[in-house]
Write a structure and sequence with these properties.
alpha/beta, nine-stranded mixed β-sheet, eight-stranded parallel β-sheet, 23% strand, globular
């Protein structure tokens, strides 16, 4: 269908009046008032509410045991990042993690829930080399364009403390990874400057982006933010660097928050959050005013870190709204925008909306309005990705 011109008729973009959306070659070319007629080859949207496809800006599709028999969680009731890493390394071989089938199964769940593009971190370490990257690349090829996938080679077990990992990241950058990652340079590697210097060098030399996990709080977390900001500007990587989680920001005093948000804006650095329960709310309004992109992600899905997760980004938007105390309609709508239109820069798009010139990524839901969509998280009635119907009534068609 992506090679043909067709019209998705009688849909309500963002809950507004009904329109007909003309699609040609996988792109929205016109949005017209609904005519009430349907020609052969067109699709009738039955007056359903339409939003752009969801963009999952922080996932780990390589870690999952989705599609396999249930794996009981066996790690400590008082976990730490170091302990989670060690536990995963000890057990992943028992479940053939990573593998193509599980990565493909997770991506299909994303599609079922209306996600049409994602950025996923993929473990690169001494135990598995680039197997995770290769598995995800193969899974993406299987789906034949049904979901756009941006890849980040992620050093989950550290960089400098594991000699050879920096070289693996460089190899991943040459093997098709869109970005390389980093992890808590202060607490994991014990060398903020050393880890960041090496990662930024690869990013510049190989022409890839950076997406850095920062979990550290307090003064160390703030210092890591400042170091990333300075290096991004010095390296000329504005618009190519993202901070994932970045828990310190929401917990800092207001003056420090304002300083860091200004720095993020100057450096063109974005931030992704999974709206984790118990974390501090982010200064999202200041970020929006200063043009700092903020994306939502699912994080891990049924993996050795946690049995939770179903791939539904709308549930993450719901959690984001609850975490930030949203109740009014405009703010509830903002949460859905962060899961859709605001995700555009994280997957290399200038715009992502139900307007002419956007990729034809459209999700239809039976709902009164966008706040109703958020609080009920109803089934996705129809999912169109790049002008191709990829799911209908909860059934994946690819």
């Amino acid at each position: 269908m992506t090679d043909n011109k067709f019209t998705l008729r009688n849909v309500r973009p963002w809950g507004a009046d009904a329109v007909d959306i003309v699609i040609d070659g996988g792109t929205i070319v016109q949005v017209l008032p609904a005519t009430g007629t349907t020609d052969d080859g067109d699709l009738d949207g039955d007056g359903l509410l339409a939003v752009p496809g969801f963009i999952n800006t922080h996932a780990h599709v390589d870690k999952s045991w989705w599609g396999k028999p249930w794996v009981s969680y066996t790690y400590s009731d008082h976990p730490t990042v170091e302990g989670w890493i060690a536990n995963e390394r000890a057990q992943r071989g028992n479940y053939d993690i990573p593998n193509v089938d599980s990565a493909s199964a997770v991506l299909r769940e994303f599609i079922r829930h209306g996600t049409t593009a994602t950025r996923t971190h993929i473990d690169v370490d001494l135990g598995i080399g680039l197997k995770g990257l290769e598995s995800v690349q193969a899974a993406v090829a299987e789906l034949d364009g049904a979901i756009q996938v941006e890849t980040v080679a992620f050093p989950q077990d550290g960089v400098l403390r594991r000699p050879g990992v920096m070289q693996l990241l460089d190899e991943a950058a040459q093997s098709g990874a869109d970005s390389i990652g980093g992890l808590d340079p202060g607490t994991i590697d014990g060398d903020v400057e050393g880890q960041l210097d090496g990662l930024f060098q690869i990013a510049v030399e190989r022409g890839v982006g950076l997406d850095l996990h920062l979990h550290d709080f307090g003064s160390l977390g703030a210092y890591e933010y400042r170091q990333v900001i300075r290096r991004t500007i010095d390296a000329g990587l504005q618009g190519r660097v993202n901070i994932s989680h970045g828990f310190a920001l929401g917990a800092l005093p207001q003056a420090a928050q304002e300083e860091i948000v200004e720095g993020l804006a100057e450096a063109g650095i974005s931030l992704t959050t999974v709206a984790m329960n118990g974390t501090a709310p982010l200064p999202w309004q200041q970020m929006r005013e200063r043009g700092v992109p903020l994306g939502l992600g699912t994080d891990g899905i049924r993996d050795l870190w946690s049995p939770f997760g179903d791939g539904d980004l709308l549930r993450v938007a719901f959690a984001f709204a609850r975490l930030h105390g949203f109740r009014h309609d405009d703010k509830l709508t903002t949460a859905v925008e962060h899961a859709t239109t605001h995700g555009a820069p994280f997957v290399g798009r200038e715009k992502h909306d139900l307007v002419a010139g956007s990729r034809a990524d459209i999700v239809l839901l039976d709902a009164e309005n966008v706040p109703d969509v958020l609080v009920r998280c109803p089934q996705r009635r129809l999912v169109v990705s790049g002008g191709r119907v990829t799911a209908r009534d909860g059934e994946v068609l690819v």
